[in-house]
């Protein structure tokens, strides 16, 4: 089913739901300080949100919000690389086993 503009409303709702779910999952990883996974999930959510083309352009709000969240996580990653203390080698080796 598509409307006169050639846009399938069901497909658009599916894309929006997928992007929102990816953002929710990314938020949970961010809250758990798993910034690498959160950044990747925001990236995927962004790629899905950019596929939402509607006359109202409500997908642009989702794209903007996702970009902002992804940039914030990237800043957390960058600050963590230089500012956080690294665990001792013995501790890291135990965790890796």
Mean pLDDT: 81
Distance between the termini: 53 Å
Largest sheet: none
List SSEs in N-to-C order: HHHH
| CATH domain class name | Mainly Alpha
Just name the CATH architecture: Up-down Bundle
Shape: elongated
Number of domains: 1
Count the DSSP helices: 4
Structural class computed from helices and strand pairing: mainly alpha
Radius of gyration: 18 Å
Low-confidence stretches: 83-97
Topology, number of strands? 0
SS strand fraction:
under 5%
Portion of residues in helices?
over 70%
In short:
The protein is mostly helical.
How would you describe this protein?
By secondary structure, the chain is mainly α. The chain has one domain (9-96): Methane Monooxygenase Hydroxylase, Chain G, domain 1. The protein is built from four helices and no strands. The protein has helices spanning 9-31, 35-49, 59-83, 89-96. It starts with 8 loop residues before the first helix and ends with a helix. The model is unreliable at 83-97 (pLDDT under 50).
Write the topology of this structure:
Elements: H1 9-31, H2 35-49, H3 59-83, H4 89-96
Helix pairs in contact: 1-2, 1-3, 2-3
Any descriptors?
mainly alpha, Methane Monooxygenase Hydroxylase, Chain G, domain 1, disordered C terminus
């Amino acid at each position: 089913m598509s409307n006169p503009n050639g846009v399938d409303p069901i497909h658009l709702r599916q894309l929006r739901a997928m992007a929102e779910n990816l953002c929710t999952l990314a938020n949970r990883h961010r809250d758990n300080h798993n910034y690498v996974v959160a950044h990747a999930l925001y990236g995927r959510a962004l790629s899905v949100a950019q596929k939402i083309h509607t006359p109202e352009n409500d997908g642009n709000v989702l794209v903007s919000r996702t970009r902002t969240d992804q940039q914030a996580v990237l800043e957390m990653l960058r600050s963590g690389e230089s500012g956080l203390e690294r665990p001792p080698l013995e501790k890291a080796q135990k965790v890796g086993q």
